[in-house]
Amino acid sequence: MDLQMPRLDGMAATQRIREAETARGESNPAVIIALTANVMHGEEGRCMAAGMNEYLSKPVRPETLRTLLRRIVANRPTSSFMNIENIEDVAGSAAALIQQLGIDGALEMFEIFDRDIEHAIAEVVRKHDSGNASEFAKAAHSLVGFFGLVGSDGSVNMARAMEESALASGCAQCTPMVKAISASVERLLPMVRDAIAGMRAQLETQMN
Prior knowledge:
Helix content: over 70%
Distance between the termini: 54 Å
Number of domains: 2
Number of strands: 2
Shape: globular
Radius of gyration: 20 Å
CATH architecture of the largest domain: Up-down Bundle
Strand order of the largest sheet: 1-2
């Protein structure tokens, strides 16, 4: 969170995020890292008081950032990644895509997900089991695009968290997330296929 943003500074933005999380009873609050070029006495304390978790000064050194991410991931319970709400309103996502792209375009996106997601998940599992964190992170990153096709924002967030965790802490830390995201796909696929059937039916109706 950059402290010096126009209109709403980082302190105020963080306070609003925390207020919203409290209002909805959020059990897995966002990790917010303060970022500033002005290193002033007491600045870090003010950031923590505003609800931020960590503090970095510019310019950010890559090794400093990696160390910080490792600490965040190590201290964050793995259950927090498994509690992400990852089943979305697939029918609603399909309807929104139809408005934007037409039935043909929306149907193509859902069919790509249906055709390729199981292979993509299998690749994630394979790369995870290989222990190669870099390759595993790349495979996890590919899932972001797949889940985006069908509007599964929770699963997008889970895939991003898995990629970041792989880069920060290696494959072993990600085992619960691999299981959780595989289960997410198992729950999503029937809904995606129902949406595909509905769109195909609409196309047939239009052609008759």
